[in-house]
Design brief:
The termini are far apart. The protein has one domain: Alpha-Beta Plaits (2-Layer Sandwich), CATH 3.30.70. The protein is of the alpha+beta class. The strands form 2 sheets. Strands 1, 2, 3, 4, 7, 8, 9, 10 and 11 form a 9-stranded mixed beta sheet that branches. The chain is built from 3 helices and 11 strands; from the N terminus they run E-E-E-H-E-H-E-E-E-E-H-E-E-E.
Amino acid sequence: MTTVICNKPHGMLTKFTDAQGRPTLAALMPLRDVYPAGRLDADTEGLVVLTSDGRLQSQIANPRHHWRKTYWAQVEGDVTEAALARLRAGLILKDGPTRPARAKRMAEPPELWPRDPPVRYRKLIPTSWIELTISEGRNRQVRRMTAAVGFPTLRLIRYSVGPWSIDGLAPGDWREVDAAPMSAHGAGLTAGDDQQ
């Protein structure tokens, strides 16, 4: 069984082929016997886990297993503690309530690479960064959550999934990793966690 992690660049699809000729993971790695465990939108950067282990793929991708995924979101505006508290408590989105999340303000991530194309800059509107950990994975969930509390996401990077992170991985880089014990990373956030 093979499990790899990669730091997906902005604009790339989380698959190996595309009939429309858009950039895919095939441009990054020669492996073809691994499959993404979940997806990232083309406009989201960061960690993608790929594996040849169907059971592990299902564990990570299926929201009922509650794997923790941490995102760095650059949002429009100066994020408030009230907005973070709403994220921690859980929100009602169009497709139902979210689970409680870990949410905290953070400094711009160190050694952050430039995005191509760059995030739009507006002189009179500040931006801020949020670290958000969820144990679900609905379509565009983080973007919808930050918008729901009044701070639309401008740039989104998935930092980690379970035990793996993008530490040491430049955009487009990948490496093979040991598969994690599934029981160790399937727990959802608890009441104590959501206050962090």
